[in-house]
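hey
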């Protein structure tokens, strides 16, 4: 007989936030993941609130708004790694700030939008989420499942938060990777985030953190290789310096690459009409692409509603 009410598969930001909301609601939660939080795509994220490459869908706006509010509360409460940052975003006249309704201080300055958003340093933040879960008795079990039916041996409800791997685990052909590369440089006093998604040489974002600055980036659909690429890294630095000249000469601390779990048609969040073999219910929460951090708490709330009272 299962001793848990629900098993969450996946320990990236989507799995951990879902597990925490379920635990807070009183469920006995099992947490199973192949990779620990520090080795997930979530740990690579620049992790700035922004609904990157998502469609203007009311569900997405609701998830994004709920996450904005939660992260802003966490920043005010001093949660490790979470801080509010002023942002300048260089835009084209045709760009549509469809998400701005949930950003309280959004201002349109013509070719530039200005607003404040939560930013997250993911490694300490994921550790904090894991510690909150452990405080409530939920401990991560490291195990790579061959199929979601294996998880159903632990509980009558399975939450699928396996990111890119969900494509294979659920035979969902809409899931594909979009590789993102970033470069980390020393922070010598930069305080404001800058975004210029339509820079002539490629996407630009500059996100200061406590000790470093994240320079990005790339969005490369269908690319699976996350090995280093010095040429791509140099190109990222050059276009970021073009937009933020104060970055010139900043010591490079490292480069990272991760595979965003994109899903054509948007994230799949909700209960599967089909049950797993053996009868367990299956609730999906995957396919958040370049916006997993931005949508995390809103999607976790949606999982809790599907889980039921
Ligand atoms: C360079 C870069 C920058 C980004 N910047 C931002 C940003 O600024 N803002 C933002 O909102 N988002 C950003 N993202 C996107 C964000 O990182 C993702 O949307 C998010 O991390 C997805 O989280 P996840 O929990 O679904 O997946 P993951 O973090 O990949 O976690 C998946 C989990 O599932 C587990 N798993 C998979 N298969 C199995 C199996 N068979 N058995 C057991 N466990 C399994 C894994 O081990 C892992 O624990 C960025 C991504 C990249 C790469």
């Amino acid at each position: 007989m299962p001793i848990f009410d629900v098993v969450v598969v996946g320990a990236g930001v989507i799995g951990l936030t879902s597990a925490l909301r379920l635990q807070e609601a009183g469920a006995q939660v099992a947490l199973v993941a192949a990779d620990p939080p520090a080795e997930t795509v979530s740990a690579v994220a620049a992790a700035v609130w922004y609904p990157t490459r998502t469609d203007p869908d009311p569900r997405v706006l609701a998830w994004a708004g709920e996450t904005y509010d939660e992260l802003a509360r966490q920043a005010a409460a001093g949660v490790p790694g979470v801080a509010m940052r002023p942002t300048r975003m260089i835009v084209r006249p045709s760009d549509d700030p469809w998400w701005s309704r949930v950003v309280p201080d959004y201002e349109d300055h013509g070719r530039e939008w200005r607003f404040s958003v939560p930013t997250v340093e993911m490694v300490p933040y994921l550790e904090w989420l894991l510690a909150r879960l452990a405080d409530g008795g939920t401990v991560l079990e490291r195990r790579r499942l061959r199929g979601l039916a294996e998880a159903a041996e632990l509980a009558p409800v399975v939450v699928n938060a396996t990111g890119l791997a969900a494509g294979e685990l659920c035979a969902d052909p809409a899931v594909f990777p979009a590789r993102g590369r970033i470069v980390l440089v020393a922070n010598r006093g930069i305080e404001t985030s800058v975004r210029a998604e339509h820079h002539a040489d490629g996407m630009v974002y500059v996100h200061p953190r406590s000790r470093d600055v994240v320079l990005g980036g790339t969005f490369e659909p269908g690319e699976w290789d996350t090995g280093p690429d010095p040429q791509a890294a140099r190109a990222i630095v050059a276009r970021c310096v073009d937009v933020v000249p104060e970055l010139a000469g900043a010591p490079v601390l490292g480069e990272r690459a991760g595979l965003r779990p994109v899903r054509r048609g948007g994230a799949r969040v909700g209960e599967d009409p089909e049950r797993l073999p053996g009868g367990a219910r299956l609730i999906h929460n995957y396919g958040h692409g370049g916006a997993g951090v931005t949508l995390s708490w809103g999607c976790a709330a949606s999982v809790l509603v599907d889980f039921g009272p």
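The chain has eight helices and 15 strands. The chain has a mean pLDDT of 96.
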